[in-house]
Amino acid sequence: MSDGDQLPLERGNGEHPGQTTAETTVVGCDGAGRVYRRSNSRFGGESEAHTVTALDDVTLQITPGEFVGIAGPSGSGKSTLLHLLAGLDAPTSGTVSLAATDVGSLTKRERTRLRLDHVGIVFQRFHLLPALSAQANVALPLIERGVPKATRRERSRALLDRVGLGERTTHKPGALSGGEQQRVAVARALATEPSLLVADEPTGELDTATGERILDQFESLAADGDRAVVLASHDERALDRTDRVIRLRDGEVVDA
Questions:
Q1: CA gap 77, 55 in Å, rounded
Q2: How does DSSP classify residue 174?
Q3: Is residue 126 within 8 Å of residue 151, measured between CB atoms?
Q4: What pLDDT, in 10s, does the model give residues 138-188?
Q5: Class of the 27-40+48-255 domain?
Q6: Which of 110, 146, 179, 184 could form a disulfide linkage to 210, CB 3.0–4.6 angstroms apart?
């Protein structure tokens, strides 16, 4: 299967509560912020509530074909921004629009459905199920989508072949190297043909050569023009591969 080949996959009706008119933007923020409320225990057993501003007044747009990096020191808001873009969380101020849908207007269940239809996520620690084969791990999102078994099998095999693991389909995660597990995670993230692929520190636990191969995959996926790819990373070598970098400090964008 070549990089340009894709098996057709029905997306359902594509409608979600809060949906607006279609735009070329895959995901965008308009004055988006995220504040968390936390409680600290005090002497005597009492607790004191306070708020933490993780992200403040972020405005940006990401379009199909873009390979975008998110950078900043620990505590700068990288993970918070990534979670908002992916619909894993909702803003407490401003708006986040994913696939022309206002994320903040959705319930948690509706956000889950939106992600399933439009977002692929590659976690730093892979989050593969150890009891399942590589092929079964890749097929998991398709099960949630109600895709027939024969189609799941065909698509998961094709995706593993695309990431260079066509001969490792029956291997469980424990029998795969870290780089191979990461590639299984990439294949799984692509299973539903998402318009947005996000990755959290995708090269953080990989050696340099393996990390470069993963970045090659991301670059190729963005170059297809069908989706946007966003990665959060401390690794400047990884960020150098992106088209542009959104840099954060203390929850604010300092360079985009």
A1: 6
A2: G
A3: no
A4: 999 999 999 999 999 999 999 999 899 999 999 999 999 988 999 999 999
A5: alpha beta
A6: 179
